[in-house]
Amino acid sequence: MISNTTHKASIHSARRRPVTASITRPGKIIAIHLSYASRADQRGRRPAAPSYFFKPASSVGVSGGTVERPAGTELLAFEGEIALVIGTPARHVTLDQAWAHVGWVTASNDLGLYDLRANDKGSNVRSKGGDGYTPLGPELIDARAVDPGALRVRAWVNGELRQDDTTAGLIFPLAQLVADLSQHFTLETGDVILTGTPAGSSVIVPGDVVEIEVNAPDAVGSPSSGRLVTTVTQGETPFDGDIGSLPAVDDLQRTEAWGSREEAGLLAETPAAGLSPDLRAKLLEAPTAGLSAQLRKRGHHSCFVDGVGANIPGSKIVGTAKTLRFVPFREDLFASHGGGYNAQKRAFDAVEEGEVIVIEARGDATTGTLGDILALRAKVRGAAGVVTDGGVRDFDAVAEIGLPVFSQGAHPSVLGRRHVPWDVDVTISCGGATVQPGDIVVGDGDGVIVIPPGLADEIADAALAQEVEDAWVAEQVAAGHPVDGLFPLNAAWREKYEAAAGSPSDSSSDSSGSSSGPDSGPRR
C-alpha cells in the first residue's frame, strides 16, 4: 500500500531492488497536458509534441483519502491517469533506454480546479497544486513485468464507469515522455510522471467517490494497482481576493471541465461546419450591400456593425462568429481578470478555421483590442478575420500579417486603458449589432453585417439573383435608357428582363415594380 507511513521496504518488495526515495514524497511530479487521442479529439486540438507542468509534492494523496472542493468554486474535475515512478536516474536517455528507468506503474488522479485555471496560463500551479490533488496508488506494479503499450486505465464515479482507455490510444508513447523529459533535467529515483488522461474526465461534487485503477490485462497475473479511492468534501474557507486571484469561470471552462457543452448544461453552439463550402462561396460572391438589402426585406433592420472599416483595402471576410466581450475598465476587475490566461487570450487560442472573432468594445476606439501577436495566432489557426468596434494596436503589423480586421482604426494603447477582457462565446453587442456565437459574419468595403444562420442560404441566393438583375439594369442605363421605371423595374421593364433572362421572376424581386422600402430596389 502507498500511504503516508509507507516504508521503503514496501517499495523494495514491489520492485525487488533497492531504491533511494519514497513515493510518498517525490522530488518532482511532472504531468503532461494532452496525451490521449480521445481527449485531444474531445478538446478539438492535437499537440505536435508533449508539453508539461509541475505539481508540488504536497499535492500527493493516498487511497481512501479525501479532496476538498474550496468554498466558492464549482469546477473540480477528476482525471484518471497512469503514473510512472522513476526507478533509476535518467538523463539524456534514448527512446530504447527510457523504459528501463521506470521502476513502477500505479494509478493516479490528476485533480484540477478549473475555477483557477484561466489565471495560471497553463502552469496549473493553483488549479492543480492543491493539497491532495495527486492521490497515488494503492499498489505498485513492477514496470519490468508489463508492456508499456498495453496498460489500461479506468475511472469510476459513484460506481459508474466514466473512463476506459489503454496506452494504445496515446499520442505520445510512455517511453517518449521519459526520454523527452530526460533531455531537460535529471529524472531522479522516486520522481513521478503523470501521463495524461483519456476522454471522460468530468466535474465531481462533494459526496462523490472517485475510483481509479491501472492494470496490465495481458501480462502474467494481470497485475493491478488496485482501486485508488478518493472522496470529495466541501471546503469552508474562501479565497481572499485582496491577496491573490479569485475563482472565475466562463462557458469555455465549464465546457472543458465537464467534457462537453451538453454535459455542462449549456446550449449547443452552431457549429462552424454549418457554413458549407457552397454557402461560403455564395457569400464571398455576394456584396454586403445586396445581402443587407435582402435582410431588410425580411424585416431584419439591425444587422449592421456600424463604424468599422477594413485594415486591408479590398479584403472580404465570411465566417461564423466567435465572440469576445470586454467590460469597462475597473481596477479590481482588471486585477482579477485582466492578467494571465484571460478571456482575450483564450478566444484567440481557441478560434477555429473559418471563424471570425467578433469583439464587443462598446464602440471605444481609444485603446487597442488586439495587436500583432494575437493577430498572428488567429492567422495561424485559420481564422477568417476579426471584427471589433474598438481600436487595433500594431495596426500596420497586423495588416502585414494578412489577417483581415475590421475596426475603428489604429490606436497605440494597451488593453488595460479602457477594457477588462471578460467572457467568450456569449451573446455580445458589436457596433450596434447583436452577435451570437455561430452567427454568420460578412464584411467588405461597404462594411460588416450579421446574418442569422437559418436565413443565410435564402439571403445569399436572393442577393446573387439581385446582382444578376442589377447587372442587366446597368446595361440598359449604359445604353441610354432613363432610370425611371427601370430602377426598380416596372412591369414593362420586368417583362423585358425576364425575356432576356429566359427565366421566371425571382422571388427576391418586386414583380409589381413598386418599391416597398428604402432597400427594396437594386443596390446601385
Automatic annotation (TrEMBL):
<keyword id="KW-0460">Magnesium</keyword>
<protein>
    <submittedName>
        <fullName>Homoprotocatechuate catabolism bifunctional isomerase/decarboxylase</fullName>
    </submittedName>
</protein>
<dbReference type="InterPro" id="IPR036704">
    <property type="entry name" value="RraA/RraA-like_sf"/>
</dbReference>
<dbReference type="Pfam" id="PF01557">
    <property type="entry name" value="FAA_hydrolase"/>
</dbReference>
<feature type="compositionally biased region" description="Low complexity">
    <location>
        <begin position="502"/>
        <end position="524"/>
    </location>
</feature>
<dbReference type="InterPro" id="IPR011234">
    <property type="entry name" value="Fumarylacetoacetase-like_C"/>
</dbReference>
<feature type="domain" description="Fumarylacetoacetase-like C-terminal">
    <location>
        <begin position="28"/>
        <end position="232"/>
    </location>
</feature>
<dbReference type="InterPro" id="IPR005493">
    <property type="entry name" value="RraA/RraA-like"/>
</dbReference>
<dbReference type="Pfam" id="PF03737">
    <property type="entry name" value="RraA-like"/>
</dbReference>
<keyword id="KW-0479">Metal-binding</keyword>
<dbReference type="GO" id="GO:0016853">
    <property type="term" value="F:isomerase activity"/>
</dbReference>
<keyword id="KW-0413">Isomerase</keyword>
<feature type="region of interest" description="Disordered">
    <location>
        <begin position="498"/>
        <end position="524"/>
    </location>
</feature>
<dbReference type="GO" id="GO:0046872">
    <property type="term" value="F:metal ion binding"/>
</dbReference>
<feature type="binding site">
    <location>
        <begin position="371"/>
        <end position="374"/>
    </location>
    <ligand>
        <name>substrate</name>
    </ligand>
</feature>
<feature type="binding site">
    <location>
        <position position="393"/>
    </location>
    <ligand>
        <name>substrate</name>
    </ligand>
</feature>
<feature type="binding site">
    <location>
        <position position="394"/>
    </location>
    <ligand>
        <name>Mg(2+)</name>
    </ligand>
</feature>
<dbReference type="InterPro" id="IPR036663">
    <property type="entry name" value="Fumarylacetoacetase_C_sf"/>
</dbReference>
